[in-house]
Amino acid sequence: PPVQTPEQAKALDMKFARFRVLAEKDGDRAGGQQVFTATCGVCHTVKGVGGKIGPVLDGAGASGVEALLRNVITPDAAMEAGYRRFRVETKDGEVVEGLLAAQDAGSVTVRQPGIEDQRFARAGLKRAGFIKGSVMPGGLLDALRPEQVSDLFAYLKTLK
After folding, report:
1. Residue 157: exposed, middle, or buried by beta-carbon count in 10 A (0-12, 13-18, 19+)?
2. Does the pLDDT at position 139 exceed 70?
3. Alpha helix locations (H) across the chain?
4. For 70-87, what is each residue's pLDDT tens digit?
């Protein structure tokens, strides 16, 4: 990720502090599982159920709250190579970004949440390659109500 200004670093520290307080609260695990299914489960799998975009999260709770926060709040900071964003631009002007699911001499296949994998013939491509950033979007916790964040982390902490 790019180097941050002092102001950006301070804002990020404040964001971590705000969500750390919520993540440490006692939340409702069942409610957290519902939040997970509706948001995280689109891309991540737990106990064989969920999406196939991001890593399987069985055992994620064993890493602790700090690691969970870091992975959710700053997904581009330390991503695994297999989860880099991949962009396909066709000669017809279509642009698709997602996870590189497969490739061979004649085609590339891109995976996106909630839809079937899309296969593109290399002959029809203008360009295809990895771009900066993780397939995991930032700001996911920002869209949740405070109690949903506490519930989500109550659930995530059980994944050991």
Report:
1. buried
2. yes
3. 6-24, 29-38, 65-73, 146-156
4. 999 999 888 888 899 999
